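Ticket opened by: R.M.
Priority: normal
Category: complex prediction / small molecule

The reporter submitted a protein together with NAP and asked that the result be attached to this ticket for the collaborator who will pick it up next week. Submitted input follows.
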Amino acid sequence: MGQVVVVTGASSGIGAALAERIGERGDTVVLMARRLDALEAVQEKIQAAGGDARCVPLDVTDPDQVKRVFAQVIQDVGPIDCLVINAGIGDPTPAKGFDSSRFGRIIDVNLMGPAYCLEAALPAMIERGAGHIVGVGSLAGYRGLPGSGAYCASKAGLAALLESLRLELRHLGVDVTLICPGFIKTPLTERNKFPMPFLMELDAASRKIVRAIARRDTEYSFPWQLAWMIRLARLFPNWIYDRLVGKRAAKKTPSS
Ligand SMILES: NC(=O)c1ccc[n+]([C@@H]2O[C@H](COP(=O)([O-])OP(=O)(O)OC[C@H]3O[C@@H](n4cnc5c(N)ncnc54)[C@H](OP(=O)(O)O)[C@@H]3O)[C@@H](O)[C@H]2O)c1
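Result attached by the on-call engineer:
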């Protein structure tokens, strides 16, 4: 029997593509994001391919709304087998004119949003002794990047949160997967003016992510070339890392 899979940020980019792939498998996909018209367009594609999708408008930064909406989904559609925490935003937060409210907006969506969704979905999974939490982090969570302090902090925070939960939840029947993509062609990266090494097409990226979810990987980073470069960069002492990456600080503000 098909599973119930909830995808946040399903109205565009990675979330929409994942939802379409998951719909093809015969699962029921619950599409969540703020823009209902965009969700309905994704729902139409899934239904046209013979799949089952429901649209649920949601702002992940509103904890009461998240609680209410998840309870409704569990009541109407059934227990959530897999929650894909994908909704996210990226904006530059440069050191010059550092703006804590902009920092807060990114943390609200990318880190508090996942916390609210976890709070709403985890109790039932733990009670059933079954479930799968998938978080879409980023290779930008591995080390700091110039101009992207808030984005890097949010993704590093998400990685640490999911790893901590994974260690507890493995004894309770709930799996946790962290997905760390590099650069993927979506509306989020469309506005980036700097070179994006190993930039991937959305279709290829979403297929890789869906396979990693099916394997229940604990962590999946890709594309492998950039993932290995960044893993290596984690081992560099700061004086090497600063010389290699800090050079770009004056002109570039990545978000991926
Ligand atoms: N593209 C990349 O290269 C890349 C690389 C690494 C990681 N990621 C991560 O992948 C995830 C998806 O990014 P994307 O590239 O697909 O970007 P995107 O096309 O801009 O999609 C972002 C999604 O998040 C939703 N969202 C934003 N704020 C929300 C809120 N307050 N409540 C509910 N939903 C909200 C948006 O829907 P609404 O506007 O309709 O609410 C949209 O569906 C993000 O977490 C991002 O950090 C992306």
